[in-house]
Design brief:
Length: about 160
């Protein structure tokens, strides 16, 4: 189960693709290239299936809360200046590879966006939501072990 911390950000990047193929005993080279603009929306949240908790008599003890992670990336790629080489034409597999490379490029840019830090800050809201859900069935949520763990991490730094 995923809980989206409602953190998303549009990332726009320019990506350059080039492939050179040598033919005829490496005497002639043929270059295909493309300039693409990637508009992507990255969604960051928490995978609640990674929660660690113990349920006792009407009490849920939360012992571990997961780190934020990329839940999905929506990409929209616009091709500009796509040129085939004389002996090196773009094929469907090339465009698929270009799309995969562009998505990987966006994946590398996500940590720079600050989304992980914002999501970490919203972890408390996610815990409060879990607490509300647990309380609707008449149970209690104990996350004191989680707070002690955070304090230990701060001391160790």
């Amino acid at each position: 189960m995923f809980a989206n911390s409602s953190q998303s950000k549009v990332i726009a990047e320019i990506y350059y693709y080039e492939d050179v193929k040598e033919n005829f005993l490496k005497l002639i080279s043929s270059k295909k290239k493309a300039l693409v603009v990637i508009n992507a929306k990255a969604h960051i949240g928490f995978d609640l299936s990674k929660l660690k908790m113990d349920a006792t008599t009407k009490k849920v003890v939360l012992t571990h809360f997961p780190q934020p992670e990329v839940l999905s990336i929506e990409t929209n790629i616009n091709y500009y200046d796509k040129k085939d080489g004389m002996f090196n034409k773009f094929e469907a597999s090339d465009l698929t590879e270009l799309h995969d490379n562009a998505k990987a490029h966006i994946q590398k840019k996500i940590p720079e966006s600050g989304l992980f830090n914002v999501a970490r800050g919203e972890a408390l809201e996610a815990i409060q939501l879990i607490e509300s859900i647990v309380e609707t069935i008449g149970w209690k949520l104990d996350y004191s072990a989680l707070m002690i763990e955070n304090q230990k991490q701060e001391i160790d730094r």
